[in-house]
Amino acid sequence: MLKVRIIPTLLWKDFGLVKGVGFDSWRRVGPVLPAVKVYNSRDVDELILVDITASTEATVPDHDSVSDFSEECAVPLTVGGGVTSLEQMVSLLHSGADKIAINTIAYSKPALIDAAASRFGAQCVVASIDVRQIESGRYACFSYSATVDTGKEVVSWAKELADRGAGEILLTSIDRDGTMQGYDLALIQQVTQAVDIPVIASGGAGNYIHMIEAVQQAGASAVAAASIFHFTEQTPAGAKVAMQAAGIPVRRNFVASL
Amino acid sequence: MKVAIINYGMGNLSSVRRAFDDMGAETIIANHPSSLYEVNRVVLPGVGAFAEGMMHLSQGGWIPALHDVVTVQHKPLLGICLGMQMLASKGHEGGVSEGLDLISGQVQKLDTLGCKLRIPHVGWNEVNYKTEDALFVGIPNLSDFYFVHSYAFTPAEEGNLIATVSYGLDVAAVIRKGHVFGCQFHPEKSSKAGRQLLKNFMDYSPC
Fold first, then answer.
1. Per-residue pLDDT tens over the stretch A61-87
2. CB spacing of B15 vs A98 below 8 angstroms
3. Which of B1, B10, B150, B183 is least buried, going by the fewest C-beta atoms within 10 A?
4. Contact residues, chain A, for B109 at CB < 8 Å
5. ipTM score here?
6. At B189, is the secondary structure helix, strand, or coil?
7. Do B120 and A98 touch (CB under 8 A)?
8. A197 and B120: CB-CB below 8 Å?
9. Strand A5-13 relative to strand A222-225: parallel, antiparallel, unpaired?
10. Is B186 a catalytic residue?
11. What is the pLDDT of residues A16-56, one digit of tens each?
C-alpha cells in the first residue's frame, strides 16, 4: 500500500534556512547542510528545498549548493525557487535535484509545465501553488513568494496544471504558513477533489493531529511542514507514530545491517 | 568492484553515483560506450519519457553497446525506473517506440492497465517478492521503496517478474532475466533498503 509521506520543507534564503509567518517575518533557523544531514540520518521520507528569494531576485538556486545538499540526501529531494526555463531544470536535475518545483513562471508561461513534463516526465514536475483566502471558501493564487495576486482561482488553476502534466501539486496556504494553527482543510479538500494527481498539503501544521486531518479529512497524499520541526519538539518520526496509530499507512524505516 | 553509470543525457546521475559510492563501489559516469569494457557492472538510470530516452540511447550509440554488455561480455546490468522500462520490447510513452528488448514486454500507462488511483504513483510503497532473489538478500519482504512513475512494465513472461508493487493493480517492481535486472523504484532514493539492494547487485555474480 502506498504510504503517506511526511516531508520537511526547508526554506532557503541567502546562506541559511529561514522560517516565517504568512511568507513574511523571516526568522533564521540555521545553516542548510547540517539540516539536510540530520533529516537524512533520521531517514525522512523526502525533502523539499525552496530558495525563497530566487523568483523575486530573478535567480535560481545555486547549483553547487544544491549539489552539496543532494550529496547528503539519500531520499527524494525537490528543489524550487525562481525556475523559469527547461535549461535551468536540466542544471538543477544534474546538480542532484529529483524533482523541480515550479510556481511563479507557470502563470506567465504555463506551457513550460507541458514542456517539462514531456522532457523529464510528469513525476519530475511539482507544481507549487501559494494560496490566500480572499473571502470565505474563495481562494486566490499568488506568485513571487506571495507578493503578487495572479487573479487565478485555485481549483481551476490546479486542474490546468494537472492537465498540462504536473506530477504533483504542492499546495501552500499563505494564511496558515508559519502559524502552526493547522492546515486549511477546506482549501486542500477543494483541490484534492478537483485533480487526480497527488496533492501535498503545506502551511499551518502545528501538531500531529493537523497532519492526520489533512490526510483523513482533506485527502492529502503527503504533508509538508517546517515550523513544527524547527520550533517544537515534534519530529517526522513522531508524526509517523501518530499517523500510524490513526490508521494512516506510513513508511516503516528499514534497519539494514550496513 | 567497478560500476558504470550510463550518461545518456537524462536523469539524475549524481544520486545513483553517490549511492554506489556509499556501498564501496568504484563508480564511473560512462559518457561513451567504450568505457563499459572497463567495468564489472553496468547501470542504466533514467528519469523522463520512454521515446526520448530511447532516442538519446540511440544517438549515443548505447543500444548495440548494451546488447554487447549483456550477450557478449555477460556483465550484470541494472535498469532503474526509465532505465528499467527501456529494457522492454516496446514503450507507449511519447508515441509507440522500440525498446532495448532485453526483457520481453510492454510499457504502458498505469490507467490503461486499469489503475484508478492518482497518477503518477509517487511515494514509498511495499515491494512484494514473488520469489527469492539475489537482489533481495538482507531486505525483508514488503520493505518500502520510493516509486515515482506513470508507466509500468508488463513482462511477456511471468518468470521475469520477480517482485510487484500494489497500486490499483499489481505492477512490476523488479524484473529479471538472467543477469539483466530492472527495478521500477529508485534504489538510490530509497534510503537504506535501496542501498542494500545496490550492494546486492554488486555482490551478485553470474554463474
1. 888 999 999 989 989 999 999 999 999
2. yes
3. B1
4. none
5. 0.88
6. helix
7. no
8. yes
9. parallel
10. yes
11. 999 999 999 999 999 999 999 999 998 899 999 999 988 88
User: Is the Cβ–Cβ distance between B152 and B183 less than 8 Å?
Assistant: no
Closest CB to A196: pick one of B47, B49, B118: B118
Rounded Cα distance, B18 and B37, in Å: 22
Contact B94 A93 (CB under 8 A): no
Q: Which positions 154-183 of B are in contact with A (Cβ < 8 Å)? A: 166-167
Q: Is B188 a catalytic residue?
A: yes
* Distance of alpha carbon A207 from alpha carbon A220, whole angstroms: 16
* CA angle, B71 then B72 then B75, to 5°: 75
Residues of chain A contacting residue B20, judged by C-beta atoms under 8 Å apart:
none
Q: Check CB contact of A6 with chain B, cutoff 8 Å.
A: no
Structure-derived torsion over alpha carbons of residues B190, B196, B197, B199, reported in degrees to the nearest 10: 130
Nearest chain A residue to B199 by CA: give it.
A258
Options B93, B149, B183, B188, the catalytic residue: B188
Axis crossing angle, helix A63-71 with helix A86-94, rounded to the nearest 10: 40
Residue B10 has pLDDT above 80, yes or no: no
pLDDT digits (tens, 9 = 90+) for A99-133: 999 999 999 999 999 999 988 888 889 999 999 99
Provide the grid cell at B51.
521515446
